[in-house]
Amino acid sequence: MNFNNSNLETNRIEETKTPENIEAFLKEQGLENVPKIETCFFFNQHATSEDGQMVADRLNDKDIFIQENAGWDKERLETWHKVSSGEFTPEQAIEYEKERGRPFFWPDYFKTIFKKLHGTSKEVLLVDIKSDSEIYQEIYDLMKKDGVYWNLVDKNKSYEEACERISDVSELESITQKERENEILKNIKTNLFELLKEKPELQNKENLKMLFSMGSFHTRLYHEMKKSGDNVNREFQSSPYTFDPRNTVERVIHFKGREKAKEYMPKILLLWLLERSNMKYQDISKQVLSCFSDEQTRKLFEMYKKSESDDKFRGEAQAWIVEQFKKKI
């Protein structure tokens, strides 16, 4: 995609125009009995076994489980069903997906959920974008290790040009994720309709509870469903929930637009540079970033541009960072 044409890219977004909620949609489709539907969002980091346990702990009283799973296909859904029915053990499910060339990105997280789900016969829905979706391919190309999302900085660019590129890429991330979310909002209705047709016993429930486990970036899903009149509630992994610095900036773009986020771009450049200096991404908090001024970020960027290699930069940057903190003591 052309990063210099971000306004045109923004125009690709097609917001959810209909305020129709899930129950109204099901009635319109002619479903004989439509129960009262409650969607419980659990926003989490979806990476570790500890994250997975927090999802598992919320499954007990839910009738349907929905898990974020971009790039799923028919066989992936079947794997979920086999775990729920007891046909696959958690270990077999993880191994099966790995053998067919579609491994889970966070196996410890999913394995923990599978242990809770195993043999319960609980219904599972997948409503995320599928593997053959154009949106999925765009997100995959953007986020892969050699994609632009993780390779933001060009030594041949000026500081201002580097910040502008970060703004472009961050906006593109917001655009593709918003397209994905719009697709999810459609799929949750249509896929639930198909499930209720297939399993009429679910229609006879007075109240139908769905647990929707989703990455914390995607709180817009909750807000859009609430605006549509759906019965939704939300819970975060921790309270107060702290978004990582990059997520924070992208959420500003997601909800308020690119212009509102421009002032944050030097901090994302700083985050990238601190990573190159050998700091771990998860250790670079907002507090760490706030210790550096934009002028210091500019100096560190110039140091990176002049360095002969990334290895050389690490040593130079670490010594410089220590010196900056000494000045504050």
Walk me through what this model shows:
The chain is elongated. Helix 4 (74-85) packs antiparallel against helix 5. The longest helix is centred in the middle third of the chain and has 40 residues, at 159-198. Mean pLDDT is 91; it is low at 1-16. It has a five-stranded parallel beta sheet with strand order 3-2-4-1-5, sandwiched between helices. The chain has helices at residues 6-10, 22-28, 49-56, 74-85, 90-99, 107-117, 134-143, 159-198, 200-203, 220-227, 245-256, 258-261, 265-276, 286-290, 294-306, 310-328, and strands at residues 36-44, 64-67, 123-125, 207-215, 231-236. The chain folds into two domains: 35-133 and 180-236, Rossmann fold (3-Layer(aba) Sandwich); 245-328, no CATH class. It is an alpha/beta fold. 55% of the residues lie in helices and 9% in strands.
